[in-house]
Amino acid sequence: MAPLCPSPWLPMLIPAPAPGPAVQLLLLLLLLLPAHPWSTQGAPTTGGDSSGEDDPLGEEDLPSEEDPPGEEDPSGMKTEPGEEDSLKSEDLPTAEAPRDTQGAQNNAHRDKKGDDHSHWRYGGRFQSPVDIRPELTAFCPALRPLELLGFELRPLPELRLLNNGHTVQLSLPPGLEMALGPGQEYRALQLHLHWGAAGRPGSEHTVGGHRFPAEIHVVHLSTAFANVDEALGRPGGLAVLAAFLQEGPEENSAYEQLLSHLGEIAEEDSETWVPGLDVSALLPSDLSRYFRYEGSLTTPPCAQGVIWTVFNQTVKLSAKQLHTLSDSLWGPDDSRLQLNFRATQPLNGRIIEASFPVGVDSSPKTFEPVHLNSCLAAGDILALVFGLLFAVTGIAFLVQMRRQQRHPSGTKGNVSYHPAEVTETVA
């Protein structure tokens, strides 16, 4: 007869001495402890070198609750039913996108001057900007650090800086190349900013409901298309690099090269020429940590198919520089150009990807999208500790079983029994 397979439960049937109180307590805790839901997402380490300019986001600056509802959008815009912004609705849409590479009419905004935006409608379901919930993002290891080529411009030729009544826009010359990945080459066309007002932050994107003081957008055209008109509405036709701006203790020298000229373009439709600068210095130093999703332009025609890259690291400007940005320009009808951002739009089932693992407690700090202080969440550490205790208890149990097998309870080793001899003594 074939030998039977030894049962894995056989050792458990062998009687053993009752475990001590400590072991009993450990076993009881292990039985009561629910299975820990290990997450597929880990926690990122701190971002790249900030060098006093950029900082990772933290949890302490995230508001404890969402912005109060009921505030009206300053632009008078209405959204389609079911697309109400759950955060702030006090948003004025304005995100300029280039119209062509020659700069003659270098933006996608086709509304007539003085438009109050009240008639804007967003027919598409995949609109921008959006609220980024770090705990709901999907880690995508295929997202590699961005590659920027030719972004360090020389002072000459000079660049056109324009107040178009909706934002301040810097036209960029040919030669600024950016790759999102293999076969995804783009060329930069222009950059512009979005801001709020005194005491009212004005970034377009939000992180966990938190809005930042300002936001920069660098707009790119895919090399697969000859111009913006061809690329509008085509998947991946346009790509935008976005970074949050936050208040820091020192002046940002790169941004000062632009902000120092705002007084020259205070009036709507005015322009000036500024020396070339290092455009990459306007972005965070760490280009490897970012969020990625597909959205739209944030002004009419609000064309979709735009690939958005929102950096996790923020850029710091001094309080004076942020004030200069929000208080220097004038828009239509002699109104101060402020709060030039669009309300966040619903995701409608879209998944936002992250180039780095994001933990559940990741939240924006003062200006960047999200960093964790620890590589393991508290629940992970607790589960690890109990796992180790379980392993130690198991080993101790096996050792005890080996001892029982080696010395059966019915005998005592090295002890011989000799019957006593009785000797009678005759008196």
Overall description:
Residues 51-74 have a biased composition (Acidic residues). It catalyses: hydrogencarbonate + H(+) = CO2 + H2O. Its cofactor is Zn(2+). It is an enzyme of class 4 (lyase). This protein is of the alpha+beta class and 427 residues long. The chain has one domain (49-369): Roll (Carbonic Anhydrase II), CATH 3.10.200. Helix content is 15%, strand content 19%. It is built from six helices and 16 strands. The protein has helices spanning 10-13, 21-32, 228-231, 253-259, 319-327, 378-406, and strands at residues 131-132, 138-139, 147-149, 159-163, 168-171, 177-181, 184-195, 206-207, 210-211, 214-222, 238-248, 271-274, 290-296, 304-311, 315-318, 353-354. Strands 2, 3, 4, 5, 6, 7, 10, 11, 12, 13, 14, 15 and 16 form a 13-stranded mixed β-sheet that branches. Helix 2 (21-32) crosses helix 6. The chain is elongated, with a radius of gyration of 32 Å. The chain starts with 9 loop residues before the first helix and ends in a 21-residue tail after the last helix. 39% of the residues are buried.
